[in-house]
Amino acid sequence: MALILPPRLSTGAFDRAMRAFAGAVGAEWVLATAEDRKTYLDAYALGDGMNHVSGGAVAPASAEEVAAIVRLANEHKVPLWPVARGKNLGYGGAAPVMPGTVVLDLGRMKRIIEVDPKYGYCVLEPGVGFYDLYNHLRDNKIPLWMSVPGNGWGSVIGNALERGLGYTPYGDHASQLCGMEVVLPSGELMRTGQGAMGNNKAWHHYHHGFGPSWDQAIVQSNFGVVTKAGFWLMPEPEMTAQVRLELPKPDDIGWAIDILRELRLSNVIEHSFVFGNYLHDASIPSQRDEWYRGPGAIPDEVAEKIMARYGIGWWGCTLSLFGHEGVVKAREQILRNAIEPRLGKALEFREWRRGDPIEKSAAGRPSAVALQIVNWMGGRGGHIGFSPVMPSDGKLALEQFHRMKQRFAEYGFDYYTSFTMGVRHINNVNIIIYNRDDAEMVERARKLFGVLIADSKASGYGEYRTHIDFMDPVAATFDYNSGVMGRFNEQVKDAIDPNGILAPGKNGIWPKAYRGAKP
Fold first, then answer.
1. What is the pLDDT of residues 419-466, one digit of tens each?
2. CATH architecture of 239-362+368-467
3. Cys-Cys with 176: which of 150, 232, 282, 417 at CB 3.0–4.6 Å?
4. 292 an active-site residue?
5. pTM: predicted TM-score of the whole model, two decimal places
């Protein structure tokens, strides 16, 4: 694989920069061979991924080494793309937006610095994965529970910085960040919130400091490199109860969302939950050609056979309750009163009490099983997520469902979707699953994604995160007052990062130095 250089950098200048990085972290942690560059390609790219190939990678082991690399990057004018573990699967993995950018791989920084059972928080470096933290809590018998996303391979902090979602009361992961240590584009080390005061004792207890609050400005931005962060965890409850809802008809999503919105607003249900369609269940244990080998999307009659085989509905959802036994029992009854008349049958709760095997609880446990969906189409599987945000309204969700299903069918894709309900919103996560060995299918997937961006903009919905291929067009949909927010982001970027060192193009934020490099 040939080396692709960042814009306006000669081979000699790039080589000098990489030697300088080696002086800061050791030559073995500068990863600049063709095989290294291949390692950081997007595993599920729409195409060969070469439009996002890195110039190599550098892997520091400490905040001090990160700061040294950033200072050297400024000196040599080499752009960096920070990744925690590079497992942002379906959104670009570890690959940078701009070809030739050097990946700043933070995977070696994996210390669990602190876990505080009394106050329910931990302090982590970005290389700490969900399995790492889960095993630490379990092995040390610490009575705190995690929230985990559907795919648990990634970084706890990295997932939160991308506004990842989990399914406990602490499932809005970005909101659980509290107090960060950040290397700024200048190479200076800053602490946010209360941590801006030396020796402050409330750094990981309170989200804000004095003046502007920068934690959430760092989220999904290219304004700094997070080298450690506080993260809130849930105290182990006295009891949990779980129930599975299976909705037999496609249009059941409308009434179900309206009922559960009221229970979510009133905190009867305290966690984000997912209404996933039948492909969530079918695409993990089976492949498409076991059911259908014809052209176009799976016909509805085949969908009925899938549901019959697995005993599932068109939509499925797991609801969990947490807390003291009396509270959980009361909430069970509220759920029964609200849901059973519409379902026409009794709800069956699975209960857990403190001291029972944790596997029977509603605790967050990491898993990578969900990633099996990439095998659905056969060949070298790939997937990409399109995830607009909308109000938690049953009528709007029903309209969105029919609109999206039709678009998937027009482009010949099986409709894999979910409505993930927050307190007042829905993340409508639609997954386009494709075979990377089928160039025509990959091109259809790309075209479908572009149409979905336009459709959602017309409906008044914007994505909450997106794949690196589409960061610019998604950013362009946030166009109020001629796109003033995008201009403001770039004004901030230019002020704090005049050399454009950190993550050019991240979420559509381009520094002045590379605006001409936009795709």
1. 999 999 999 999 999 999 999 999 999 999 999 999 999 999 999 999
2. 3-Layer(aba) Sandwich (3.40)
3. 232
4. no
5. 0.96
